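Input.
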Amino acid sequence: MDLRNILIGFGVALTCFAFQSCSEDEKGGYTPVNYNVNGKVEKGQFVSGSTIDIQPMDDKMQPLGSIYSSTISDNTGSFSFGSKEFETPFAQLKANGYFFNEVDGQLSRGTLTLLAVVNLADQSTVNVNILTHLKYKRIINLTGQNKSYSDANKQAQKELLTAFGLQRFPDVDVSQYSITTGSDQAGALLAISSLLLVDRSEAVLTEYLAKLSEEFGQEGKFSETSLQQIKKDRNKLNSKLPSIASNVVSRYNSLGQTVSVKDLAYFFDWNDDGIAGNEIAGNDTPVTLETSRITVPKEGGEYSIKINTSIPLTLTPTESNTSQMPTENLFDKLYETPGLSSMKVEKALENNVLKVNIKPSASRRNRTDSVAIYDFRGQKVAILTISQEGNPNAPLPKLGEAGVQAFYAYASSLSEVITSSNTLEAKYSGITTDPAFRAPLSSSNGNINDIFSKYYRAINRNLTLLEADATRESAYPDFLNTFNAICYYNMVVYWGGVPYLTTVPDLNSLYLPRTSEKDIFQALTSNLETAISKSDEKKNRFATSDLNDLLFVSKDVARIILANIHMYQGEYTKAKSLLAKVVSNNFYQLESTTSYTPTSKELILGLFKPDRSGNTPTAITPILTYTDVLLSLAECEAHMGNDAAALNYLKMVTRAKGLTETSDVITGIKEARKIALTDQIGYFAFLKRNGLAKSELKLEDYQLLFPIPQREIDLNPGMTQNPGY
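Output.
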């Protein structure tokens, strides 16, 4: 062989040797290299003094023996190993220590261990975090299946981000994610770190991470059980996202660094469609309805409303927005059948069309309801308001257990104060002789203080029931307002203007000033006119063991009370119209007796202390009677100059009661009231509105009103005394 051939053969041999060497490198034949490894450990940030180890690994991710140790150098989680010689570019990093808990904004109470496996040839600056920890076992398992580190890492990265709906961030290895960058990757890291930490101690978190790592390491995904837990944790975390961002910013500020945090909501897959952040309504993704309000007749109807949106929507808020500890309320059983009169709305959302089916109205009142539309984070993004016409023939919800108790307490209070008022009025007006009780009354008089307090006790119990009803079905306001008018009318007769309460007193209403007589009557008139329009035209029932019969007063009850208010103001024409309707109904009849029982044909409204055992009550306190109605009609006709009609109404009473007849109508009414209505309030008001009180009772002008109790003056800086006292 000549020299030329020898040289050619040697060259071929060298080439073959070179190729053989490359092949051996791919199989793990690496030349030792010095790497200057540094980075951060972030859960939140690991604190200064935490430890971190690095250990070289072969291409099958098996440890090679040598271990280098370092410590976290500051409270941002920074570490550096300096220049170290590594037999291969593959290494395991293992960090252990305390960390900043971004969820509660405090340092952890226990330590946590996080892992990462990296190729230092690609990047010697590496970060250890939750995502590198979860990816660790998956890379180990894949390389054990003869995949190269590069392929195993790419697959594990894609699988991990996809598991959290974050597949839009595949290009940057999670070992390069850092909270400090303020980037989308930083937001993703912080979101997942918070998600896995929420409501977990360090020990529980360690156990949980081990479970997730094992599942993901084997299959490249989480088990169904773990996915459900992640969903629950996501919903728990929902309301905490702003505070998490704030905690992180504040923590870095305290360390002399300024960081920004992306809106963390965009890094969660709220609707489980596999894509994070596409479900949130922002300023650039408005949700609008074709119409935001519909008006529905009492018969109900079906409606379809188109929704303009670019995000998925739901009719159900997230668990975190709905899950509250059940609380017991005194009035949970206000009604016998809860929800009887509430609006019945069926709703569905299909292809961005809201479909609602409103059932026929079960309420006598116009009702308003709404359908809320949410994004999948649970934010309310649109509201459809539904107004439905009331059905005047709808049944009223009867009192439930709590309603019975509350109304029983109110009826008892009202009965008590009416009885006390009748006693006081009889003495003051001379119907009952009591030398110790005569004008002028002192502001410290015990009787005056007693009935003043009792009226407000009854009013407060009425308002308590009224407010409880208003927050539920608002079924009883007309009836309760009617009863409340009885109290305020009597108080105006006795004291003039008094504090007018519309809500149960609190610290802001304890010192209300007096409301003028005119304003009180205006408010009562409005309430009573509404009650007349809403209540039933029927013979009023009350003297039964069923408290519903007492509560559901008829139109006639409201008419009579309103007529009294009109007469007191000299508006006799208005009063006559109301009273004449009561007479024309022919529901009631005069009787010869002047005492009343539950079966009295002329008793329109009475009060008693109801017997909850079911026994028929016997003790009646008369409030409204047919005798009173006829005498008031006579008074109206007299003031309107219709003497013949006035005398006719008066004779109906005097003949039925066996009283002396007279041609002087006003005198005849006075005597009839004094004799036939002894047990009923109204005589004092009659004397006042007809200008007879001063002459009949020998009173001075100022004595036409009772003194305000001195106790009220002392307790309420806004209260003033009536002139003359």
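The longest strand covers residues 33-42.
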